[in-house]
Design brief:
Elements (H helix, E strand, L loop, with lengths): L2 H13 L6 H13 L7 H7 L6 H15 L1 H14 L1 H5 L2 H7 L8 H8 L4 H21 L6 H9 L7 H16 L1
Helix pairs in contact: 1-4, 2-3, 2-5, 4-5, 10-11
Protein name: Caspase recruitment domain-containing protein 19
Membrane topology: Single-pass membrane protein
Subunit structure: Associates with BCL10 by CARD-CARD interaction.
């Protein structure tokens, strides 16, 4: 989006309800008059700083004049506005449009939160379940000769798993060699 289009979009915002006071407008006009390359000539600067005309009229005329001059002049106006009225510059409607993300773009922070919203207890429960199933499958495999070791591990693990679950697993391990 060109600076002229942005300025056209922001024109109503800048000229409405005295957002810019006379001092700020004078500073902007002086900066546009004194900056290199010179955006406003001395006659134009005097015209836009004339205290006999209302501030709204002078500001509207200045913005229209800059739009006629081209994109470079509008860009310099935005630079002067940023220097002299930074808060107003940040509140411009065209700035808000530039800051708004593309609606088709995935917000990675929000997506990350949505994937991790279950917390550490859910993770530990899933991990414990997977580890238990892996241990159970490993112990039940007929090719492995680790029944004795598994019985020792399960015998020393009353803290990790409950007593009833441990007794069932021990009975199952004792029945496997008989089959």
């Amino acid at each position: 989006q060109s600076y002229c289009h942005r300025l056209q979009h922001d024109m109503y915002f800048l000229t409405s309800t005295s957002r810019l006071n006379e001092q700020v407008v004078d500073k902007i006009v002086l900066q546009l008059n004194r900056v290199y390359p010179q955006i406003l000539t001395n006659e134009e600067a005097e015209k836009f700083r004339n205290p006999k005309a209302s501030l709204h009229t002078r500001l509207s005329d200045l913005l229209k004049h800059l739009q006629k001059k081209g994109d470079r002049h509008c860009q310099e106006f935005y630079r002067a506005l940023q220097i002299n009225a930074e808060q107003l510059f940040n509140d411009l409607p065209s700035r808000k449009i530039l800051k708004t993300p593309d609606p088709t773009e995935i917000d990675t922070d929000k997506e990350q939160y949505m994937l991790n919203d279950r917390g550490p207890v859910f993770f530990l429960a899933c991990f414990s379940m997977a580890a238990g199933l892996a241990l159970f499958w490993y112990c039940c495999n007929s090719e492995t000769q680790v029944i004795g070791r598994a019985r020792r591990i399960l015998g020393f693990s009353p803290i990790i798993i409950g007593r009833h679950v441990r007794n069932i697993c021990m009975l199952y391990l004792e029945d496997i060699p008989r089959n």
